[in-house]
Design goal:
It contains 18 helices and 16 strands. By secondary structure, it is α/β, with parallel strands linked by helices.
Length: 486
């Protein structure tokens, strides 16, 4: 666990006084302006308000609260101590001790369920804005001095292939490069970054942030090979013959979960990943088959209740407004109540501000098309909540005879993702479960094949940037030990 903050000369802080400091608001673009652009919604703290917000931290003697709830165990109290004193570069350095992507985590992590949800201040008042402070200081550092170059150990002569350039792959690549190993990252898409580039819209995470991170990784010696699908264009077994000594599989979970509902194959019905990729990136960063923008309908229906669904509704609203459709609708349909929605409350709030509507306790049963095979309406059924299922949420139960139809000329299905079996099928001896998730040792990421490690969504199923990064960092430690034993 990380060490306590250095509070030399000011140990006896007045916690009662700190509890009286009101939470500082974070400025953001006004809804009526931001629907016309894909710029980040949150404008971030300025220096003075960041210092005030960080001073709300009670500097708890134990790190079992916010730091313990962070999958990376960032030493948050120590970072906030520095921020409160205006020591922004020192604070950023604290985050980079344990995180490879603090500027990303500060923007996209569900802090209310992790660090922020365990903030002691939150028991009496609004918790400290931990994510917004993390992104503030790391942005400040990048503007002031760039991402600091770490010391690199002498070359070991060992070569590592990292498959996938998402958060897990980036963590492994950076950590093993620091140890002196030569790392090549293989990415199937045109530019590196994985889900952070292709799955998270720019209004939540600017593409510039990933571009700067990739440039930094290249400058410390990491090579990226894009437009290359391992398992198709080249196999792990072939890379072994080419002289790679160890492998990390960080291929994520990109196979969409389908509704299996009549009419799902109609024109105008999209899976969330394709819709987000085509809607958020310029053509030169897209695979050739996805370079056209998605359709923009007057009545857009999104199915799902997680953060991906919120990304879809907010993207759809922007595309709709920018196409001049100011009287259209974007409606999210969710089969449970709002209380059971897994996504961030903040994202739903932003969506509502932008004109998105919600229909709860509703599920689609059929998509109806026109004579050209294009979706035009959606038949739904109302639901009620029954007993809790395996996830702990109450199970939705259809209400017989409650069917109704709504207009829908574009439908986006955001129901989750699964792992791709391609690498499993093309790698000798690699074991996976029935969902094609790679079986690993949870502490090391080691697979059934010596020298091959894995981590992230292709092991756990769809999860968070921070949990994938944590898995990558654990795997990197084990891989370094393995490589030094060869």
């Amino acid at each position: 666990m990380a060490k306590q903050p250095d509070r030399t000369g000011d140990i006896d802080i007045n916690r009662k006084e700190r509890l009286r400091i009101p939470r500082q608001s974070v400025p953001k673009q006004k809804p009526e302006a931001r629907v016309y652009n894909f710029d980040e919604v949150y404008l971030g703290f300025d220096e003075e308000h960041a210092k005030i917000e960080a001073t709300r931290c009670l500097q708890c003697p134990s790190l079992s609260g916010c730091a313990g709830a962070c999958p990376l165990h960032n030493d948050i109290p120590r970072a906030l101590w520095h921020i409160s004193r205006g020591e922004f570069l020192e604070a950023a350095a604290v985050y980079r001790e344990t995180s490879n992507l603090p500027e990303v985590c500060g923007r996209v992590c569900p802090q209310e369920k992790l660090c922020q949800g365990s903030c002691v201040v939150g028991k009496k008042d609004e918790p400290v804005y931990l994510g917004k402070l993390e992104s503030f200081v790391t942005d400040y550092q990048r503007r002031a001095i760039g991402i600091p170059k770490p010391p690199i150990a002498p070359p070991t002569g060992k070569r590592v292939a990292v498959i996938g350039s998402g958060p897990a792959g980036i963590a492994v690549a950076e950590e093993l490069t620091k140890k002196g190993h030569a790392v090549t990252v293989f990415e199937s898409l045109p530019v590196p970054g994985g889900v952070m580039v292709y799955g998270i819209p720019s209004f939540k995470l600017s593409k510039r942030i990933l571009e700067e991170k990739i440039k930094f990784l290249e400058e410390i010696g990491i090579q990226f090979v894009c437009n290359t699908t391992v398992g198709k264009d080249v196999t792990i077994d072939a890379l072994k013959r080419d002289g790679y000594h160890a492998f990390f599989l960080g291929t994520g979970a990109w196979v969409p979960t389908k509704l299996n509902t009549p009419g799902e194959d109609l024109k105008g019905v999209y899976m969330a990943t394709e819709y987000l990729i085509r809607g958020n990136l310029p053509p030169e960063k897209l695979p050739r088959a996805m370079q056209a923008k998605p359709e923009v309908g007057k009545h857009i229906a999104v199915i799902g209740g997680g953060d991906t669904a919120m990304d879809c509704v907010r993207t759809a609203r922007r595309l709709q407004i920018q196409a001049g459709i100011t009287d259209g609708t974007v409606i999210d349909y969710y089969r449970r109540s709002e209380k059971e929605m897994p996504g961030k409350v903040e994202e739903r709030t932003n969506a509502i501000e932008e004109g998105v509507q919600f229909e709860f306790l509703v599920a689609p049963v059929k998509f109806n098309g026109d004579e050209n095979g294009h979706v035009r309406e959606m038949e739904c059924i109302r639901m009620k909540l029954g007993e809790p299922d395996a996830s702990g949420r109450r199970r939705p139960v259809p209400i017989e005879g409650s069917n109704f139809t709504v207009p829908a000329d574009v439908v986006i299905c955001a129901l989750g993702y699964g792992a791709d079996p391609l690498i499993e099928k093309t790698t000798s001896g690699l074991k996976a479960d029935k969902w094609h998730q790679i079986i690993v040792d949870k502490e090391t990421g080691a697979t059934s094949v010596p020298g091959i490690y894995a981590g992230g969504d292709n092991v756990t199923g769809p999860d968070l940037v921070v949990t994938a990064m944590a898995a990558g960092r654990r795997a990197a430690m084990a891989m370094d030990e393995y490589l030094r034993g060869l």
